[in-house]
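Attaching the record inline, Q. Sequence:
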Amino acid sequence: MPNVSDILEKKGTEVQCIDPGQSVVNAARQLRGAGIGALVVTEGGNGEDPGKVIGIISERDIIAGIAGHGEAILDKPVVELMSSAVASCTREENITIAMDRMVEGKFRHLPVIEDDELKGIVSISDVVRLRINDLIDIIKA
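Structure, as predicted:
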């Protein structure tokens, strides 16, 4: 069974991050610009090191924020909408375990963290894509 590292080898390890003090509207713009569904919220980083992971903010969080608080939430800092209880995985974790964690938690993104360092991120679509490719390989064999 493949590991999370198999996904990262194909997609890369770049992760879009945002500072907790940035506005929610900036987060929405960054999500749209990168064509992704979630940003890892980090603090204390620099150009090479993204810093400590303190949360994650997704499109769903932003929509829920607007629905609950109106458009004024867009000017608030990301820290007010982010999920601070971040589920994560390691590169050596089995894909099935990571997928189960995402399904059970009802979230679509799982940061890859080892020794308090952000090593990548996997999405449910990454996992599904890998599983489909594995099935195609089995059928072709």
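The domain at 4-140 is CATH 3.10.580.10 (CBS-domain). The beta strands are 17-18, 38-44, 51-58, 109-114, 117-123.

More tomorrow.
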